[in-house]
Amino acid sequence: MSRLLRSPLHPLVSDSIMLLTFTGSKTGREYTTPVGYWVKNGHLIVTTQSPWWRNLKGGQPVSMQVQGQHREGIATPHPDPEDATQYIKEFIDRHGTDATRRLGIRIRGDREPTLDELEAGVEGTVVIDIELTDDKPPVR
User: Fold this and answer.
1) Is the confidence at residue 107, as pLDDT, over 80?
2) What residues contact residue 44 under an 8 Å CB cut-off, 6+ apart?
């Protein structure tokens, strides 16, 4: 996926997947991982259930390869389940329940889940809000 996102063929997937680069808080090493994202009020929103988000505690600088462009930002994790529930609810309202697969979340049934069902379904999910800090146009 990393090679595809760095290639001229990136438009095949770069509308919903980007490369996120951050520095390990203990090792000081740079890590890059492909992540699904969506745009909310000019911020990039990422969800994960993997522990790498702990490197971003307190808001940390990150770089991204998004839609074929190098971007810079500050990533702030929101590990509170209520925050994850609200972000995912908004995502469903905008894109529908089928689109939640892009975030690694599966919704069962033919209706939108209640907030309680959604909170149970996103257990362990952390939302990362990335504020862009470069002077390039907003991501759409």
Assistant:
1) no
2) 18, 37, 38, 64, 66, 73, 129, 130, 132, 139
